[in-house]
Write a structure and sequence with these properties.
Blueprint (H helix, E strand, L loop, with lengths): L3 H6 L2 E4 L8 E7 L1 E5 L3 E3 L1 E5 L4 E4 L11 E5 L7 E5 L6 E4 L12 E6 L11 E8 L4 E5 L8 E11 L2 E5 L1 H4 E7 L3 E8 L6 E2 L4 E8 L3 E8 L2 E2 L3 E2 L5 E7 L7 E2 L2 E7 L2 E5 L9 E2 L5 E6 L9 E8 L5 E8 L4 H4 L4 E2 L4 E4 L3 E9 L4 E8 L8 E7 L7 E8 L5 E8 L4 H4 L5 E3 L2 E4 L3 E9 L4 E8 L8 E6 L9 E8 L5 E8 L12 E2 L4 E4 L3 E9 L4 E8 L8 E6 L9 E8 L5 E8 L12 E2 L4 E4 L3 E9 L4 E8 L8 E2 L3 E3 L8 E4 L2 E2 L5 E8 L4 H5 L4 E3 L2 E4 L3 E9 L4 E8 L8 E6 L9 E8 L5 E8 L12 E2 L3 E4 L3 E9 L4 E8 L8 E7 L8 E8 L4 E8 L12 E2 L3 E4 ...
Parallel strand pairs: 17-26, 79-84
Antiparallel strand pairs: 1-12, 2-15, 3-4, 3-14, 5-6, 5-7, 8-9, 8-10, 11-12, 11-13, 13-14, 16-18, 18-22, 19-20, 19-24, 21-22, 23-26, 24-25, 27-28, 28-31, 29-30, 29-32, 32-33, 34-35, 35-38, 36-37, 36-39, 39-40, 41-42, 42-45, 43-44, 43-46, 46-47, 48-49, 49-52, 50-51, 50-53, 53-54, 55-58, 56-57, ...
Length: 1228
């Protein structure tokens, strides 16, 4: 070993034995870890397709899209990976999960991990093997970034306290890796920026490759070119010149090459480089901030863009300039604007990264800073009421924008913000004084001028008037007018009827002659005056004292309806406005002449009368007009109405309200309202608001006196009394008692006493059960005083009075005992046994038991009247036969139950050897065991249960013992039969030794012991195909160091092969002596529990209560599983260790183990199952099966079934245990 280490620490060049083409490279990785001086461990393999990490089940079947392959250990403690992303630099990264491994790297290998596989011993002295050309294989402490593949190939560590070193020659696996011979490709231009080009620029493509590749064609931007190469053909390059016809965009290229006989193409660079061909100059748009006239600077906004290579430089200058100017002149743009301070031309320049140039010019001509000129004049110059002021405003630049004027002398600032009055050319004023005119051009420049006005008369004439009278009159009213004017003098005075405007008098109206005019109608009149300056004045006159019509009278009754009170007669006078001077009234129909000297003077608008008849009213107004109106009074009534005899419905007993029907008559023919009230009342009570109104009928719900009241339309009222005594609302009272409350097997008499109602009891019924009152509407049994109850339970008694009041009362009878006791028997176990059988007895009895007995044999009830033994709840039965159990309750009810015991078997099975009991073979000759047969008195042929202990090593001379044993279902063991096999040595052929295929070089296997080992010493369990195993003989001895484990040749290609081999490598499962695994054989409950306990590394100090596993080889594992809550057993005393385990039993144990290990939550909510046979899954297993399906530790079958009662096979057990271990290790 000391000679090997220095050699590995130096860089070696190791020739490949079978040199492959660069396209198919022979790469290496660790297939399994083999240590010197001893120790071996399996590993996993993963690979990347460039986008995701995937697992690899067979290193010889690497997918064609794999970029790299590496080994990976299950224990991730201290794991570190070594890789290169770009082929230029390398990286190392610690990881705790496969999810942290990058998928897009060029090569990758595991560089550190726990070399002791769970003892936290990291590796050191790492060496790596790699290849950079696919031909030569090199080794060293580092891997160059441009390697094609790499793998860890040497390290040291400590395992179980012993120094270990990787034996790479034994651990190495080779695999085929597809590698592109072109290793790099890049493209550049000779422009200022190598990533852009324009017409006339050159573009160069460079590639590096493995020597094995041969270029067959090359084109750049659609042009075929010839490539140049270096001497060793590992680097090639080609250049093209781009023209105007070259399509814009990313320059494409095509490299055609061969690798051996295979043709390939390359169209993309490996470093991401590219050249963008851009032959279009940038676009530039110039927009002024305003096209309107302005005094301010104009901002020129610039919009520039280049959709190809992008803009690199932008400048501007005053004037109309070309691109040549800006190559050395101009102002660098600090933003996207130009500020124009004066009118003139401005130019913007832009150049893109490819060198294309653009200039754009714009003329600014809207800046104006000169104020306009302004001249004013006025007309007329004589006296006038309106003067027109004219303004002549001129602006030679932007032009006049608007003109305003304002009274007084105003500054320019006054008119800013559009104050003043807008006008065009001229405006009118009506007041003397100074006026200011303002003019502003479109750029905002302004000027003002003032003018004074003195020839305006703006005071209108003054008008006053006086009517000839203001008293009421039937004659015309004369209006006298007085008009005066202070300045220019009165020109004309007019009047017109109605309220008129001044414009009306331009052509209308009547001129006032003299100083007055006359009117004959009430209404509005307008007086108009105008002075010589044209000022106008109006005055409105209202005349209201001319009366041409008389007043009128209408009469109405204050109460037109019936009444027993005086009636008020109401006057409704329509006057003419002059006022009423006289009002009178008189009884009878009278004319106006009558009232000259007769009649009663009336003050106000109404008077009252207290008798029917005709009445007349007279009025006279201040203008002398008269009017008479007549009205008749007919509805004064003081006679009381008559109340008829009331009618009661019903008039027999009732528990409802009684309807009272009442009516009344009156001389007026109309009864206006009727009321009623409880008790004896008078009419004053009702007239003061008492009582309740009704129409035709009213309801009463209490017996007693009542009063009815009637009132006619005139308000006359009368009363009448009545008595109600047929209402009964009292519920019956039901009192129940029974004939006896002592236990009895006879009927019990129930007696009912009903009372408490006003009306007599009309019906009595009873019914069994707890019933409602509605039940007895159509059902129930009538009785008188009492009835007999035959059974225990509730009874309901119903009573109803003549008034219909109903009541129920319930009573529970619980002292009738007619049911017999029931005996239940159960034997355990029910399967064949060599031990005693326990019979458990229980009794269900509604009545107290006074006698309990049992006896052996089939006996009748009469026997137990004088015979029988004492009762036992648990009876130990020693022999097969009948047992009879007997009970009797205190009422004399008897019960009998018999049970036959037939499963006690204490006879041993018998083994008969097939072939000779002593066999001799020659060294290195295959030995085949002839076998044996076995039979049992109860089980019959038990050959498939024979267990063979011992093995024959035909490679070593000596004497070997095979021991045959069998146990029947009752546990009886046959007398052991022995076969002796003697291996005689080969004839002497020298000192050569038989080859040793064992992968290690000494030491023992690490990890937990195998799941199918027993607890004794010596021998190996050899299951017989068919029904699985029932017991494991003593544990086999550890194989000698250097002995190769069996190949398990019957699992190749099996769906569970990976899991079986993984557990086999961990020594959790073993094969059979013939080199098979027999994956389809069933597994017993003891075997599965042992495998679970050892996988979890559980210890237990308690002792399980199961009587059938106390001395079993797996009792320690069963005890530990019970202590940790993984198993419970069939019952408190039976576990069934040798029974084949069903799939649902396996799921329950595995689920509880997952909870114990912390990889399944105890509080999780498992999903719904969707198997076609899910209804067959036992209720106690359903939740556990769902949890295992959710976690993917168990699956269903392809036909969408779970087969919960199907036996779990050795393959299925290996698969679920392997998934369990992987999940557990991943969680750690």
């Amino acid at each position: 070993m000391a000679m090997i280490v220095p050699l590995l620490l130096s860089t070696l060049v190791i020739p490949v034995k079978d040199q492959a083409s660069a396209f198919n490279v022979q790469a290496e990785t660790i297939g399994a870890v083999y240590y010197d001086p001893r120790g071996v461990s399996t590993v996993l393999h993963i690979y990347s397709d460039g986008t995701s990490i995937k697992s690899l089940s067979d290193i010889s079947q690497v997918p064609s899209d794999a970029r790299w392959v590496t080994f990976m250990v299950i224990y991730m403690e201290g794991a570190e990976i070594y890789y290169s992303r770009d082929g230029v630099t390398t990286e190392k990264k610690k990881i705790s999960s496969w999810n942290e491994i990058p998928a897009d790297v060029k090569w990758l290998t595991l560089s550190n991990f726990d070399g002791s596989f769970s003892e936290n011993q990291l590796i050191s002295n790492q060496q790596y093997t790699y290849s950079v050309d696919g031909v030569n294989v090199l080794s060293g402490p580092e891997v160059p970034a441009n390697a094609l593949w790499a793998t860890l190939s040497y390290y040291t560590t400590t395992w179980a306290g012993e120094g270990r070193a990787l034996n790479y020659s034994r651990s190495r696996e080779t695999y085929t890796l597809n590698v592109d011979p072109i290793r790099s490709a890049s493209i550049r231009s000779n422009g200022a920026d190598p990533t852009y080009a324009k017409a006339g620029d050159e573009v160069t493509l460079r590639i590096t490759s493995l020597p094995s590749r041969r270029l067959t064609g090359l084109s750049i931007a659609g042009q075929a070119v010839t490539a140049s190469s270096n001497a060793d053909l590992t680097e090639s390059w080609a250049t093209v010149t781009l023209g105007p016809s070259t399509p814009e965009g990313i320059i494409d290229f095509l490299v055609e090459y061969e690798d051996g006989s295979q043709g390939r193409t390359l169209t993309a660079t490996t470093d991401g480089s590219s050249v963008l061909f851009d032959n279009t100059p940038p676009s530039v748009t110039l927009t002024p901030s305003t096209s309107d006239w302005t005094q301010d600077n104009v901002i020129i906004n610039v919009q520039s863009q280049d959709l190809g290579s992008g803009i690199q430089v932008e400048k501007w200058a005053e004037g109309r300039l070309d691109a040549a100017y800006f190559r050395s002149g101009g102002n660098l743009a600090s933003g996207k604007v130009i500020t124009a301070y004066q009118n003139g031309w401005y130019t913007w320049y832009a150049k893109d990264r490819a060198g294309n140039e653009t200039v754009q010019s714009i003329e600014i001509a809207n800046i104006d800073r000169i104020a306009p000129s302004l001249n004013l004049s006025s007309s007329p110059t004589d006296w006038t009421s309106v003067v027109t002021i004219s303004a002549d405003a001129v602006d030679h630049e932007s032009g006049i924008y608007f003109t305003h004027w304002a009274p007084g002398v105003q500054p320019v600032s006054f008119f800013k913000n559009r104050r003043g009055n807008f006008f065009r050319g001229s405006f009118n004023v009506t007041s003397n004084g100074d006026y200011t005119v303002y003019a502003e051009d479109y750029a905002g420049n302004a000027a003002t001028r003032q003018i004074a006005i003195h020839n305006l008369d703006d005071i209108p004439p003054a008008i006053s008037w006086t009517p000839s009278t203001i008293e009421p009159t039937a004659k015309d009213v004369v209006i006298t007018v007085d008009v005066s004017d202070q300045e220019s003098g009165v020109d004309i005075v007019k009047w017109a009827a109605g309220q008129q405007q001044a414009s009306y008098f331009a052509t209308g109206g009547t001129e006032v002659q003299g100083a007055n005019f006359a009117v004959s109608e009430n209404g509005l009149y307008t007086i108009y005056a105008r002075d010589k300056a044209g000022n106008e004045q109006l005055e409105t006159v209202e005349i209201t004292n001319i009366y041409n019509n008389g007043s009128s009278l209408q009469l109405s009754l204050g109460n037109p309806g019936w009444t027993n009170m005086p009636v008020r007669i109401q006057l409704d006078i329509t006057g003419n406005g002059s006022g009423i001077s006289v009002q009178k009234w008189a009884y009878g129909q009278r004319d106006s002449q009558y009232f000259e000297n007769e009649g009663t003077l009336l003050a106000g608008t109404s008077f009252t009368v207290d008798s029917n008849g005709m009445y007349s009213v007279y009025i006279k107004d201040n203008a002398g007009y008269e009017d008479v109106a007549v009205i008749e009074v007919t509805r004064i009534d003081r006679e009381e109405p008559v109340i008829l005899e009331p009618i009661l419905t019903p008039d027999t007993w009732t528990n409802q309200s009684v309807e009272v029907k009442a009516d009344a008559t009156d001389n007026s023919g109309m009864v206006s309202r009727m009321k009623w009230a409880p008790g004896v009342q008078d009419d004053v009570y009702f007239q003061q608001g008492g009582g309740k109104p009704f129409q035709d009928v009213f309801l009463v719900d209490i017996n007693g006196d009542y009063t009815i009241y009637a009132e006619d339309a005139a308000g006359n009222g009368s009363v009448r009394g009545l008595k109600v005594n047929n209402i009964d609302v009292q519920l019956p009272i039901v009192h129940l008692q029974i004939s006896t409350d002592l236990p009895t097997n006879e009927n019990v008499t129930v007696m009912a006493d009903v009372y408490g109602t006003l009306s007599p009891i009309a019906a009595m019924k009873w019914a069994p059960g707890q019933r409602s009152i509605s039940y007895f509407g159509t059902q129930g049994t009538e009785f008188d005083g009492g009835f007999e109850a035959e059974l225990n339970g509730w009874y309901t008694i119903y009573a109803e009075s003549a008034a219909g009041n109903k009541q129920i009362e319930m009573i529970e009878i619980h002292n009738i005992f007619k049911d017999k006791p029931v005996i239940q028997l159960a034997a355990s176990p029910t399967v064949p046994t060599k031990d005693n059988v326990t019979v458990t007895a229980s009794v269900y009895a509604p009545n107290p038991i006074v006698d309990r007995k049992l006896a052996y044999g089939q006996l009748d009830k009469a026997y137990f009247s004088h015979g029988g033994d004492l009762w036992s709840d648990q009876l130990e039965v020693h022999d097969n036969g009948w047992i009879t159990y007997y009970v009797r309750d205190h009422a004399g009810n008897e019960a009998l139950k018999q049970l036959e015991i037939t499963n006690i078997d204490r006879e041993k099975p018998v083994i008969t050897l097939l072939g000779d009991a002593s066999i001799t073979i020659v060294q290195h000759t295959d030995f085949v065991d002839p076998g044996a047969v076995a039979s049992d008195n109860m089980d019959g042929d038990v050959t498939d249960r024979i267990q063979v202990t011992g093995q024959v090593d035909s490679s070593k001379p000596g004497q070997y013992i095979l021991q045959y044993s069998v146990t029947d279902r009752a546990g009886n063991e046959a007398e052991e039969v022995i076969r002796t096999v003697t291996v005689t040595p080969l004839p002497d052929k020298g000192d050569s030794e038989w080859p040793n295929p064992w992968p290690g070089s000494g030491g023992t296997w690490s990890g937990p012991p195998a799941a199918d080992k027993g607890e004794g010493d010596g021998g190996t369990k050899v299951p017989i195909p068919g029904k699985g195993t029932e017991e494991t003989p003593p544990e086999p001895t550890v194989p000698d160091a250097g002995k190769e484990p069996m190949a398990l040749h019957d699992i190749s290609g099996h769906w569970a092969e990976v899991a079986i081999r993984a557990l086999y490598d961990r020594e959790l499962v073993k094969g059979y002596p013939d080199g098979t695994y027999k994956p389809d054989l069933p597994v017993t409950r003891a075997e599965f529990v042992t495998l679970l306990v050892r996988s979890l590394q559980l210890d237990g100090e308690g002792k399980a209560p199961f009587t059938d596993s106390a001395d079993h080889w797996a009792s320690s594992a069963i005890n530990a599983a019970v202590e940790h809550g993984i198993v419970e057993g069939y019952s408190s005393r039976a576990f069934g260790p040798n029974d084949p385990i069903t799939r649902e039993q396996m799921a329950v144990m595995l689920s509880r183990s997952g909870q114990q290990a912390g990889i399944l939550s105890r509080d999780s909510d498992p999903g719904e199952l969707s198997f076609k046979d899910q209804s067959s899954i036992s209720a106690w297993a359903r939740e556990h099966v769902s949890a295992l399906i959710d976690s993917r530790m168990m699956n269903g079958y392809p036909n969408d079934r779970f087969l919960p009662q199907g036996y779990a096979t050795r393959a299925e057990v290996a698969a679920v245990i392997y998934r369990f271990i992987l999940t557990q290790e991943h969680r750690k």
